[in-house]
Amino acid sequence: MTADLQAIRWARPRLSILNQLLLPHRREYVEIATSEQAHHAIASMQTRGAPAIAIVAALGLAAEVSAMAFDSDDVARAHIRARLEYLQTARPTAVNLFEAAARLARVVDAAATGVAQAYVDAAEQMLADDVRDNEAIGRLGCEHLRALPGDKLLTHCNTGALATAGHGTALGIVRDMWRAGQLAHVFFTETRPYNQGARLTAFELVSEGIAATLVCDSAVSALLARDPSIKAVVVGADRVAANGDTANKIGTYQLAIAARFHGRAFVVAAPSTSIDLALDSGAGITIEERPQDEITAAAGFTASSVAAPGAELLRERLQIAPTGTHAWNPSFDVTPAALISAIVTEKGVFVKRPDAQVFDLRASLAA
Ligand SMILES: CSC[C@@H](O)[C@@H](O)C(=O)COP(=O)(O)O
Description:
Helix content is 39%, strand content 17%. By secondary structure, the chain is α/β, with parallel strands linked by helices. A hairpin with a 2-residue loop joins strand 1 and strand 2 (14-18). It is globular, with a radius of gyration of 20 Å. The model has no long low-confidence stretch (mean pLDDT 95). It comes from Coemansia javaensis.
């Protein structure tokens, strides 16, 4: 991964994040020294992507805790537990944030002494673990996809280095296939309305020189009908239920329908921290709804705003729909397991039993 793409920088006890609101026009890092700042960075989408959200929350609190002197381990434990509760209110859909908070709460509960230090060590470890897991996903995804006919892929949203601690999930597979000479071309959607594809995936693909073409979300069926060499659609996940139903960026569901109609594989790539075994199906997943003006107006930069200091320039928006237009803006949708061919995790590639419509991820992860 080039330094340009490093979304999360941690040099104990300092955390800074690449402000993704400014990409692809400007590369600016923001220092995160407190849990309030981490919460703001996540809620305002300075940082986004399921694994990155969890890690920024964990390390933001690690930075805060490192600068504090606690009277006792009990005081440290109570502080950390309260801040973990608070951080979980930043965004509702990606389970990684909740999984990380629960795991870190267990760490501080288990530490009889040195609670603050135990917390910082565990939060720091998440960064290394996520890169290692993504590399395993890339390797396993390459092996899985090698057998399928065709030499092109289609992906959605941004699932790369910017959405994780590094390398990426679905985009990590794209990276590895490209490096291995297994991939001739990747198509990627703009991912309306927030344009994670057009702004962020494009930034990653261009900076690494991967042969790629941006398409409108609405061009996908036409693309699949026209190009039989697209072997699979590969996407990330924000929360995968035990039966394999997968919440991911809005538009994922219709890609899965299009892939099924055109006889292409539809592959979900995610770390096991994105799997929520507490949920039997996707019906229980909370879907974040975002402001209407993300649809009724376009975010962007004018020549002068690109040069202006500060992130507030991002509030500059170009109105598209008439004032008074009502818009519905769910940030995620749930793709039924029946439409998913395989789920690639760092622990293995999971498929359905022959004739089953759903996965049994409880059994797969226990094996
Ligand atoms: C490895 S990131 C996987 C998903 O988190 C990604 O596809 C996605 O939906 C991100 O949504 P975002 O709203 O940008 O946080």
